[in-house]
Design brief:
Length: 126
Amino acid sequence: MNIPTNLKYSNDHEWLRIEGEEAYIGITDFAQHELGDIVFVDVDTEGETLDINETFGSIEAVKTVSDLMMPVSGEVIEFNAELEANAASINSDPYNEGWIVKIKMTNPSEVENLMDAAAYSAFIGL
């Protein structure tokens, strides 16, 4: 199971990669493995400012649909348009090509409530 040490993790299995006041959000390797083959990602919140734990979209796998939750509050400024043609890149590369949205954080201090790689590993039982 791949759990990069440079990311932060939520209880909902989203990861956050911080770049200044902006951050990229995706789902973890654990989450994509649990969901199975991902076929579609729906994000209709681009341009909206959402609170922590609000739903910013959904992800559809062959057998299930799951909500995507904001690990921190912020404005959704970009959706990874590559996912429209290749949602399966979340399965093959969840931390790079499989990022889902880019946000402008409205309260960066919320990052302190997220888990580091070691805590997330323990959370999922590794």
